[in-house]
Amino acid sequence: MKQLEGYCYHAARGFLPQLLAELKGYDRLDGELATVLGPKQKAFWVRNVWKNPLVIDFSSIGDAARALRAIQRNWAPYPGRFARRSALIAEKLPPLPDKPKAFPCELPDTPMGAFMLIDEDEMLAAPDCSSPFPNGEFEFVEDREGPPSRAYRKLWEALMLAGHMPAAGEKCVDAGASPGGWTWALAGLGATVTAIDRASLDPRIAALPGVRVEKHDAFTLKPGDFGPTDWVCSDVICYPPVLFDWIEKWLESGLAKNFICTIKMQGDTFDRATTERFASIPGSRVVHLWHNRHELCWIKVEGDRGLGSY
Questions:
Q1: Are 287 and 296 in contact (CB under 8 A)?
Q2: Do residues 297 and 255 make contact, with C-beta atoms less than 8 angstroms apart?
Q3: Phi then psi for 157, rounded to 5 degrees?
Q4: How many CB atoms lie within 10 A of CB 64?
């Protein structure tokens, strides 16, 4: 068994080129998993990061499983090379939960490991990964009747990773609310929601208790127009600098406590400069959620547990 001083970066789905562009080179590439020796590098387009991986030699499938169990309980196979052999090893390990999760739910408080065969008798394994879910993947039990879109899953995921969510009676601003997926999720937690968009909300969402609709461009409104606010949420389709300028006004005002905002990229571009500006805001972080597409999520939440970061 050999300890590697480095990290393995598992690219977000479909964003391996973006990840490789972020990294300052890599020592090996296995599918969507880039291994980089040396200090931790800042990367946003990841679903999971393996910390200080090990190289483990083994003589048989049973020997490989015993080696992993001797380190810890939870191991997820990454199906790179020798996928069938990896699956046989996984069958000899304690099973991992694979059912969709109801919201809200408790996240695992024990480390999630990952392993991959790099040869028939050699594997790369990390007992501690950034994501609490196997290979960073998980799904919610979906509500197919209440919300008007599936965008609510992004907000649910961000709230679960932060470990803190709106409480009954708390005041929320939902910018870019149409058709109302995030407003539906916030109202479902008992919060009062000011939903802002130039487009109309689904009438069912607009009629929910505690929801007030403003047909307006949110970015032309100032924090003082809202007063003290518990949560500022945004899933607006806009250029990242426009979102940053608006959020900066909120931060300067001191009127908001918690923020969850989607940073949407334009086309195939990655506005790294603006993303870095968001990430440098004290007490906040930027992650790629499992339910994100060509976008990132900025989280600034009081008491953030930091799950999903590394």
A1: yes
A2: no
A3: -65, -45
A4: 26
- In angstroms, the CA 39 to CA 259 distance is 30
Domains of the chain listed by start with CATH number:
2-136 (3.30.2130), 152-300 (3.40.50.150)
CA diameter of the chain? 67
Q: How far is CA 124 from CA 92, 151, 305, in A?
A: 17, 35, 28
Radius of gyration from C-alpha coordinates of the chain: 21
Contact indicator for 298, 232 with CB cutoff of 8 Å: no
Residue with tokens 């806009």: 238
Confidence class for position 79, pLDDT limits 50, 70, 90: confident
Query: Which pLDDT band, with edges at 50, 70 and 90, does 81 fall under?
Result: confident
Q: Which amino acid is at 258?
A: N
Residues 54, 126 contacting (CB under 8 angstroms): yes
**Dihedral-angle region of residue 243 (phi above 0 means left; psi in -120 to 50 means alpha; beta otherwise):** alpha
Q: What is the chain's length? A: 310
pLDDT, one tens digit per residue, over 85-99 is: 999 999 999 999 889
Q: Is-catalytic flag, 101?
A: no
pLDDT at 80: 81
Q: Up-side HSE of residue 143: CA atoms within 13 Å toward CB?
A: 17
